[in-house]
Amino acid sequence: MQLLGEIGGDRLPDLYRAADLLVLPTRGDNLPVAVLEAAASGLPAVGTRVGGVPEEVLDGKSGLLVSPGDEAALAAEMAALLSDPSLRTSFGRAAREHAVTRFSRSASARDHERLYRSLV
């Protein structure tokens, strides 16, 4: 683990690609952009079941989720992914696919259009 301090946006894609996984032990977050950035780079995540995180991290498919405040479970899931490169690769591919199909600009436009049509 490295603590890098503040990072400029232009360096983020390279850092995500160099990482093994994203860990987001938040106790509350509506839709964390970091998860989507990591997923777009093919990086699986270990996060908490709060806010919009379960929409971004599909538990057991694109990453792993734990209850907020459960440090033992967080550590266990991190260790599980770190010790299994093939699972990380599989989750990373699924994370990218999910990010593109659910959270890309075109997906957002499609969802908004669908919403607007349902209101007319």
C-alpha-based Rg, rounded: 15 Å
Task: Identify the CATH homologous superfamily.
Answer: Glycogen Phosphorylase B
Classification by helices and strands: mainly alpha
What about the largest sheet?
3 strands, parallel
**The CATH topology:** Rossmann fold
Give the count of helical stretches: 6
Q: Helical percent range?
A: 40-55%
CATH class descriptor:
Alpha Beta
Shape type: globular
Query: End-to-end distance, in Å?
Result: 51 Å
Fraction of residues in β-strands: 5-15%
Please identify, by name, the CATH architecture: 3-Layer(aba) Sandwich
Describe this structure in words.
It is a single chain. This protein is mainly α. The chain has a single domain (about 10-120), classed as Rossmann fold (3-Layer(aba) Sandwich), CATH 3.40.50. About 55% of the residues lie in helices and about 10% in strands. The chain has helices at about 10-20, 35-40, 55, 70-80, 85-105, 105-120, and strands at about 20-25, 45-50, 65. It has a 3-stranded parallel sheet, with helices on both faces. Strand 1, helix 2 (about 35-40) and strand 2 (about 45-50) form a beta-alpha-beta unit. Helix 2 packs across helix 5 (about 85-105) and helix 5 (about 85-105) crosses helix 6. The termini are far apart.
